[in-house]
Amino acid sequence: MSRNKSEAVQDWRPERYAANARFVAELGMPVLELLAPRAGERVLDLGCGDGALTAKLAELGCTVVGVDAAAAMVRSARERGLDARLMDGHALSFEREFDAVFSNAALHWMKADPEAVVAGVARALRPGGRFVGEMGGFGNVAAITVALVATLNRRGRDGAGAVPWYFPTPAAYAALLTRNGFSVRSVELLPRPTPLPTGMAAWLDTFGEPFLKLLDEEDRDAAKAEAVELLRPVLCHDGDRWTADYVRLRFSAALT
User: Fold this and answer.
1) Entry pTM
2) Residue range 55-70: average pLDDT?
3) Is 57 exposed, middle or buried (0-12, 13-18, 19+ CB in 10 A)?
4) What pLDDT is stored for residue 22 in this prediction?
5) Cβ-proximal residues to 12 (8 Å cutoff; 6+ apart), any chain
6) How many CB atoms lie within 10 A of CB 188?
7) For residue 240, how many C-alpha atoms fall within 13 Å in the half-sphere facing its CB?
8) pLDDT of 15
9) Does any domain span residue 44?
């Protein structure tokens, strides 16, 4: 699930994403249930990625439009037969078109201007429309972030400045929704330690490029290995089984 302006530093490859991060869509099913989509509704999937959950919405009888900022992901979604469009989440171009906007594991990549993202969602919805989603919340991948920041700092780079994610608290996100005309039905943090089927190095390959691309190409593998070893005491167990320190923010709101 990609973000807009990060595409220059984050290479979203559908095959790699499917191999290393298919759990993201699988864990998004409760968010789909929170949306409670009804047949015939027009739904926008914001940050649709390769369309795994977009297809689920279509199977439920919704008319779905998926948008994503990664061209490769949009192509993959279109190969599923979906209406997927290349679009920056900060600049949604819809006006009073949807009954609901759904988003899973994408909003935290839209760091440049979260206010613009939510304002665009509000414009896209019809009065009374629903906005339901899940994203990284405050404390998400905290250990992983610290390890990557430390690894870059040791090499003379600005590790903190490389952080590409927006992980708000429930209070901060509720305030953002309210400012943009939403009535918040629910917003909560959900700690979710998540097993990584292909390990930490593969996770860093899939999601850590905004950090690693700041390094010379010949140093990236060594930096990645260093980050893995920093994380081993806290996120590795039972030999070589890895668990990511996920904390998700799940919310439901309606446009007033």
Assistant:
1) 0.90
2) 95
3) buried
4) 46
5) 2, 49, 70, 72, 73
6) 11
7) 7
8) 59
9) yes
Domain ranges, residue 182: 14-140+165-196+245-255
Dig out the tokens for 209 from the structure.
């490029």
Split into its structural domains, the chain has a count of 1
Residues 195-209, mean pLDDT to the nearest whole number: 93
Per the CB < 8 A criterion, the answer to whether 74 and 85 are in contact is: yes
CA 223 to CA 218: how far, in whole Å? 10
User: What confidence score (pLDDT) does residue 1 get?
Assistant: 41
Q: What amino acid occupies position 104?
A: N
For 113-227, list the strands marked E by DSSP. Answer: 125-136, 182-196
Q: Is residue 160 part of a domain?
A: no
Provide the pLDDT for residue 27. Answer: 67
Angle (nearest 5°) at CA 202 between 197 and 207: 110
Name the amino acid, one letter, at 94: F
Q: What is the CATH number of the domain that holds 111?
A: 3.40.50.150
Tokens 């994203």, residue? Answer: 135
